[in-house]
Design brief:
Largest sheet: 8 strands, parallel, barrel
Bound molecules: phosphoenolpyruvate, manganese (II) ion
Order of helices and strands: EHEEHEEEEHEHEHEHEHEHEHHEH
Strand order of the largest sheet: 7-8-9-10-11-12-13-14
Shape: elongated
Distance between the termini: 42 Å
Helix content: 25-40%
Number of helices: 11
Length: 340
C-alpha cells in the first residue's frame, strides 16, 4: 500500500499518516518526491483497507502496490534516487567511476593504485579488505589492517572508500572505516546480512548474484530498504552462462530493465563482468552508452603480481585510456563529469 499525499500536505499531515500506520503495527517509509510526498507501508501481512487512510488530512489517495518489491519500485517513487557517497552523487547527471584493486594487498600497492586512479579521474576508491574467495587457501584479504590503509587513503587523497563486507562482523568494521558497504555477488541473498546493511547509516553497493533474476535482484535491494536504508546502488557484474570466452556474461540489458522498474541507480562492473583485461574497456564503453550511472573497475599497479583478479585488472595506463574513451561516450549520452 502506498499513501500519496496532496501537493500542499503539511508535515503534520504526513506525521498523522505515519502515526496511523504505526498504530496498525506497520512501518511507514516516507518517500519525498519532486512535487509531493508518498508514504510506503511495509510489515502488513495482508492487504490493508484504503479506507483507513482516505479520510486523513492531506491524503490524495491510497493505492495498492502491485509488484512484489515495494520500496524499490517506481510505483512508490517515480523520481530517480540519488545516492551520496562522501561528496560524490550516484544517480544524478554525472557518471561516477569507482576504481582500485580487487584487494588491498599492502600499503604500497593500495596507495600506488589510489594515486593512479585519482590522477586519471576516478571519483571513488575500491579495494577489498575482506575477500570472499572460492578457495579457502586463496588470499582472504588483510582484514582490519586493510581497512586502516583504506582510511589513510581517503585522508590523503580525498577519495571516498567502497569496500566489501562479507559477514556481520566485517560489516561493523567496514562501517567504522569506509564510506560505502559493498555486498558481493555471493552474498546477494544473504538475507540477514542484507537486513544488517539496511540498519546501517552507510550507503550500500549491491552486486547482482551470479544467477539472480531481475526480480531476485530487486527483492535483495528491498531487504535493505525495508530496514530503513534507502541509499542503495545496484551493480550488474555479469551472470553465469555457457559462454567460455569470458568469466561471466555481462548482462547490460538489465540496466534499462532496472531503471524502468526501480528508482534506484545502477552501475556496471566490466571487470568481473568479463574477467579479461582486454574486454574491460569495450564493455565499459557499452555500459555508459546503455545508461549506467557509473562504473566500478579493478585497477592494479602490477596486475601480473596481483593476489586476486589480476587477469581482469587494468594497469594504471590501461585505466587512463579507458577514462579517455568513456568521457567521449559520456558526453554523447549527456553524462558529463566522467573526469574530475
Ligand atoms: C569484487 O568486487 O572484488 C568482488 C568479489 O565482486 P563480486 O562480488 O561481484 O564477485
Ligand atoms: Mn575482484
Amino acid at each position: 500500500m502506498l499513501i500519496v499525499m496532496k501537493a500542499h500536505a503539511s508535515p503534520d499531515d504526513v506525521a498523522g499518516v505515519c502515526a496511523r500506520i504505526e498504530s496498525l503495527g506497520y512501518r511507514p517509509h516516507q518517500m519525498p518526491g519532486a512535487t509531493r510526498t508518498a508514504i510506503g507501508i511495509t510489515g502488513n501481512p495482508g492487504a490493508i483497507d484504503p479506507v483507513e487512510f482516505e479520510d486523513l488530512p492531506g491524503v490524495a489517495e491510497a493505492i495498492r502496490v502491485t509488484k512484489p518489491y515495494k520500496l524499490v519500485s517506481r510505483e512508490v517513487k517515480s523520481d530517480n534516487t540519488q545516492v551520496r557517497i562522501g561528496s560524490v552523487v550516484i544517480g544524478g547527471p554525472d557518471l561516477v567511476v569507482i576504481a582500485g584493486p580487487c584487494g588491498v594487498e599492502s600499503r604500497e600497492q593500495a596507495f600506488d593504485a589510489a594515486h593512479a586512479v585519482k590522477a586519471a579521474g576516478a571519483h571513488l576508491f575500491r579495494g577489498g579488505a575482506y575477500k570472499p574467495r572460492t578457495s579457502p587457501y586463496a588470499f582472504q584479504g588483510m582484514g582490519i589492517d586493510g581497512l586502516k590503509i583504506l582510511a589513510e587513503i581517503r585522508a590523503e587523497t580525498g577519495l571516498g572508500i567502497v569496500t566489501e563486507a562479507i559477514d556481520e562482523a566485517s560489516l561493523d568494521a567496514v562501517c567504522e572505516y569506509a564510506d560505502c558497504i559493498q555486498i558481493g555477488a555471493r552474498n546477494m541473498q544473504n538475507f540477514s546480512l542484507l537486513r544488517r546493511a539496511g540498519r546501517s547509516k552507510l550507503p550500500v553497493l549491491l552486486k547482482r548474484g551470479m544467477s539472480a533474476t531481475l526480480e531476485e535482484f530487486l527483492m535483495a535491494a528491498e531487504y535493505i530498504l525495508s530496514e530503513g536504508n534507502y541509499n542503495v546502488v545496484m551493480c550488474e557484474r555479469g551472470v553465469r552462462t555457457f559462454a567460455d570466452h569470458t568469466r561471466n556474461t555481462l548482462d547490460l540489458s538489465v540496466v534499462p530493465a532496472v531503471k524502468s522498474l526501480s528508482h534506484l541507480p545502477i552501475i556496471v562492473d566490466p571487470s568481473h563482468g568479463t574477467g579479461k583485461r582486454d574486454k574491460v574497456t569495450p564493455l565499459a564503453r557499452a555500459a555508459v552508452a546503455v545508461g549506467a550511472d557509473g562504473l566500478i573497475v579493478e585497477v592494479h599497479p602490477h596486475p601480473d603480481r596481483a593476489l586476486s583478479d589480476g587477469m581482469q585488472s587494468l594497469t594504471p595506463e590501461g585505466f587512463r585510456s579507458m577514462m579517455s574513451e568513456i568521457v567521449q561516450i559520456a558526453s554523447l549520452v549527456r553524462r558529463m563529469g566522467a573526469t574530475n
